[in-house]
Amino acid sequence: MLVLLLLWSPILSAQALPDFSSIVEDATPAVVKILVSYDEKEAIGQVPDMQQLPEYLRRFFEGRGGNPQPRERASIGSGFVISEDGYVVTNNHVVEGASGVTVRLIDRRDYDAEIIGLDPRSDLALLKIDADDLATLKLGRNDKTKVGQWVLAIGSPFGLDFSVSAGIVSAKGRSLPTERGENYVPFLQTDVAINPGNSGGPLFNIDGEVIGVNSQIFTRSGGSIGLSFAIPVNVVRNVVEQLKENGEVVRGWLGVSIQDVDRNLAESFGLDRPQGALVAQVGEDSPAERAGIEAGDVIIKFDGQTIDTSADLPHVVGLLAPGSMVDAQVIRDGKRITLEVEVGGLDADDRPSVASSGNDAGNSDVLGMVVESADMEAMAELGLNGGVLITAIRPDSPAADANVMPGDIVTRLGNIAVSDLEDFAEAATQLEPGKSVRLRVFRRGSPLFIGIRVPKESLE
After folding, report:
1. Which of 199, 215, 257, 373 is catalytic?
2. Would you say residue 6 lies in a domain?
3. Is 199 a catalytic residue?
4. What is annotated as the active site (predicted)?
5. pLDDT, tens digit, for every residue of 8-58?
6. Does 123 appear as a known binding residue?
């Protein structure tokens, strides 16, 4: 029996594996190679005067015939056709700053491409070539995509035209903040072999539908190690439509600073588990403030979509059109309430600020935090009218365990707003041994909630 199983197992395994050949045959005519050139000054920059170079560098260049000569730089990416009249999708980073872009089809026809629009926040770009009756790809739906499903990529890794690789979806909703700290793309993570040159190419499901645009890889060597990330098609569809119509992208904006909820904070807010986006700060005259959202609220649903972590909220809000009326479900003081929000535009000029009131003098020591009255001038620079300054943290105290730091400015302890030492002392009398309490501080100009476990023994 064992021998029979061993003989049959390769056949059974082969039957379980998908055959991608029909997808490749149907899709490849609509996949393109992107050839990008850059102006010499953009590529090389100004060459420094030889006399201004350090001695060791001057000798290096002089030994090779004088000033280094600039050379034109070029790069390669991938893309795909979405309309018969020549609209092409690729990555922003593939064509940004280009002096010339050429789109090459599989039959080696080349077309000069016009950049219709760029969106650095999503890393997407829309191009247009002068052609008709082109093969196109169908955009699928991300709500049908599941972790573990087979996916396929076609592109030009390292310039190797129209290469095919396959794998599975290994995670969804992966947050990869940009250098500016923005986080508007819930990336699909796959183990498909993606390498330089694949950027901008399509990611297919088993039905041959595009479910993402390959954008990034995690690597230590410069090549694939099985961690690749694709922009999901719902983001692609939204961005492309706006670029086609307006040449730019406008995103929804709420006007809040948010953070994750840890176990101690969850308990202090009356949650049965860590969930939601904790509002640390509400911008003045922002959509959030006008809707009645307050610092300390935990947003658990927005526009009907569950917010499991703080990273989920920008993904949802960013896809909404400014002016949209949606419901936000929040936890406030242990109660679940629903607020109606009119979504604003991301590039609004309003800047967040938080106000409290009052000040006092003296000192206090609660949970290992030594606090004093804060300097009014320094407080005003932060946009604060109240709070107390933490000057020291006692070792092995609850505050030390919670990573509270000297220099933090406390504006709330538990349910009590702290404007001076008297408020702080009053809040301390309401601490319950064995329970978690939330502390709201300003650290380096930014608001932050911290959960602290109150010890069961005496607080003295």
Report:
1. 199
2. no
3. yes
4. 93, 123, 199
5. 455 545 556 789 999 999 999 999 999 999 876 544 443 444 444 444 334
6. yes
